[in-house]
Write a structure and sequence with these properties.
- With 202 residues, this protein is α/β, with parallel strands linked by helices.
- It has helices spanning 2-53, 84-87, 94-106, 124-132, 144-148, 158-163, 177-185, 187-196, and strands at 65-70, 76-81, 114-120, 137-142, 170-172.
- It has a five-stranded mixed beta sheet, sandwiched between helices.
- Strand 3 (114-120), helix 4 (124-132) and strand 4 form a beta-alpha-beta unit.
- The N and C termini lie far apart (92 Å).
């Protein structure tokens, strides 16, 4: 009779060990995936910061840049800069510009399957556009608080906008915050901020 009870116990024990091994393997794979994703995010944000920094050498310097890439392949679709002053359009933020150009280029409304990178955390308007465009992820560099040191901002975190939405989007950041914030503190950009006069004069 003793043997009758041993096999179920052995089977149960093996099941526990296999389950623990499976969970350990899952955790290891998740860590590897997260590490790879972070490496890709760093590389893409570095490229975007460099693209945006080129504007600092022009007559119209801008610290706000955005790029859209395929989520799975990392293939760049396009990059865009803030164009509010150039287009006399208060909604022409870098993220909105990137979304507008990407939907036209891809000839579709949904950007599911794509990720948006931006040198600064999206404002509520831009984060709403991200959600309506059904982007998979948004990855940002500098924060809204960083930008608010230099120009007016609606200080609601992008993650909070996403959480209060019926639509799903992963918000990751800050990534390379110091490098992206350096775009704001460049001497040419600081002079430009003074000319923008976005704050009420006391």
């Amino acid at each position: 009779m003793a043997g009758f009870y041993v096999w179920p116990m052995l089977n149960w024990g093996m099941g526990v060990l296999l389950s623990q091994a499976s969970r350990a393997t899952g955790r290891r794979l998740n860590r590897q995936r997260e590490s790879t994703e972070l490496e890709l995010d760093l590389a893409r944000m570095t490229a975007l910061a460099a693209f945006t920094a080129r504007s600092l050498r022009t007559a119209r310097p801008r610290p706000f840049g955005a790029a859209i890439v395929e989520t799975t392949t990392g293939k760049l679709v396009l990059s865009a800069l803030n164009a509010v002053r150039e287009q006399t359009d208060p909604t022409a933020h870098a993220e909105v510009q990137a979304i507008r150009k990407a939907t036209r280029k891809l000839k579709k409304l949904s950007l599911a399957g794509y990720t948006l990178y931006t040198t600064c955390e999206p404002c509520p308007m831009c984060m709403s556009a991200v959600l309506w465009a059904a982007l998979d992820r948004v990855v940002y560099g500098a924060t809204i608080e960083d930008a608010n040191r230099h120009c007016n901002q609606i200080q609601i975190p992008a993650a909070e906008v996403a959480e209060r939405s019926d639509m799903q989007c992963i918000v990751a950041g800050p990534i390379l915050r110091e490098e992206c914030y350096a775009l704001f503190t460049n001497p040419r950009m600081l002079r430009a901020f003074r000319s923008w006069q976005t704050r009420k004069q006391s």
